[in-house]
Amino acid sequence: MKKSIQMILLVFMLSVFFNAVNAQEMKEPWPGVTAKVLAESDKMTVTQVTFAPGAVADWHSHKAHSVYAVTDVKMKAEVKGKEPATVEVKAGEAVSLPAVKHKTTNIGEAAFTVIVTEMK
User: Fold this and answer.
1) CB-based burial, 92-117: b 16+ in 10 Å, e otherwise
2) For labelling, which of 9, 39, 51, 55 has a CA lying 20 to 30 Å from the CA of 87?
3) Which pLDDT band holds residue 28 (cuts at 50, 70, 90)?
4) Which stretches within 2-120 are classed as H helix?
5) Phi and psi at residue 55, in whole multiples of 5°?
6) Residues 76, 86: contact at Cβ < 8 Å?
7) CA distances from 52 to 5, 32, 55 (A)
8) Tens of pLDDT along 62-100?
9) What is the SS3 assignment for 56?
10) Structural domains in the chain, sorted by start
11) Rounded distance between C-alpha atoms, residue 55 and residue 101, angstroms
12) Who's near 71: CB < 8 A, 6+ residues apart?
């Protein structure tokens, strides 16, 4: 019985360790855009995303999600069938958004970072 508990704890700890290692992996889905998954479960994903000045996240989609601005954000948001819009969010502000397919461009002079929490 004691060995079974120890084995379960070992498997659990290894699982946590490998998930933590994977969560720190930086990815660059588009030039100048870096993404790092901070947390992930079967219900949601939390990702830190940084856009260099002029960087473009080409057409992609999100389910219902929220965005927390780590830094000031100035971007152009394009949604098919709608006029492009300039979006500005101050550091520390958060917005809740519906599902969307869009293209985003950093039109500010500095890089910006956001935390995106997306429901699965």
Assistant:
1) eeeeeeeeeebbbbbebeeebbbbbb
2) 39
3) confident
4) 2-23
5) -65, 145
6) yes
7) 48, 5, 5
8) 999 999 999 999 999 999 889 999 999 999 999 999 999
9) strand
10) 24-119 (2.60.120.10)
11) 18
12) 91, 110, 111, 112, 113
**What is the Rg, in whole angstroms, of the alpha carbon atoms belonging to the chain?**
18
Counting every residue written for the chain, the total comes to: 120
E-strand ranges in the chain read 26-30, 33-40, 44-51, 56-62, 65-69, 73-79, 85-89, 94-97, 100-106, 112-119
Q: Please write the tens of the pLDDT for every residue from 34-49.
A: 999 999 999 999 999 9
